[in-house]
Amino acid sequence: MHVVIRADGGPEIGYGHLVRTGALTSELLEDGLNITFATTTLPHVGEVYPDGIGTETLPTRGLPTLVREFVRDHADVTVTDSSLVDGAYQLQLRDVSPLVAITDDTQYAIAADVHIGSDLNGPHLDLVISCVLSISLSYFISISN
User: Fold this and answer.
1) What is the CA angle 144-110-71, rounded to 5?
2) pLDDT over 50 at 144, yes or no
3) Sign (positive/negative) of CA torsion 44, 120, 105, 90?
4) The model's pTM
5) Dist. CA 104–CA 118, nearest whole Å
6) DSSP string spanning 98-144?
7) DSSP letter string over 10-40?
8) Residue 126's domain is classified under what CATH number?
């Protein structure tokens, strides 16, 4: 199985997206999955990500059509962790691949098959336009303790 992960990170925008998806990548590699990381911040990926992944350098952060084409041709599953991957962006990716969206501050509509978010309470619930499963990160913290 081939998983494409779409995230950016570095000193200018922070490392949170890379750290979260890097931890996920380690687990997926242990399970024998193939991982390709699609990013605009390739120099910083090596600072956080484990060895054994493929990379795809994207020319810009905001054009989902470029990522959509890559995902269509390479991904069995796509994971995103980016504040720029809004509902419209997610719909384009979900059209060509099952989609997992990781969010740390949900401020836009969610259109993923699976959504993992830091806060699924209150006003954020009306942002889910299409989602099969939505899980709060606090759930994972509580079951791991």
Assistant:
1) 90
2) no
3) positive
4) 0.84
5) 5
6) -EEEEESS--S-B--SEEEES--SGGGGGGBSS-SEEEEHHHHHHHH
7) BTTTBSHHHHHHHHHHHHHHHTT-EEEEEES
8) 3.40.50.11190
Order of strands, edge to edge, in the sheet holding 34-39? Answer: 54-57, 34-39, 2-7, 77-81, 99-103, 114-117, 133-136
Report yes or no: 98 and 78 within 8 Å, Cβ to Cβ. yes
Residues in the chain: 145
Residue range 14-66, pLDDT digits in tens = 888 999 999 999 999 999 999 999 999 998 888 888 888 999 998 888 788 88
Residue 90 lies in domain: 2-144
Q: Which of 5, 9, 66 is nearest to 33 (CA)?
A: 5
Other beta carbons less than 10 A from residue 30's beta carbon: 9
Our count of domains for the chain comes to 1
| Residue keyed to tokens 């890559």 | 70
Per-residue DSSP letter, 56:
E
Beta bridge partners, 101, equal 80, 115
Residue 142 is predicted with a pLDDT of 42
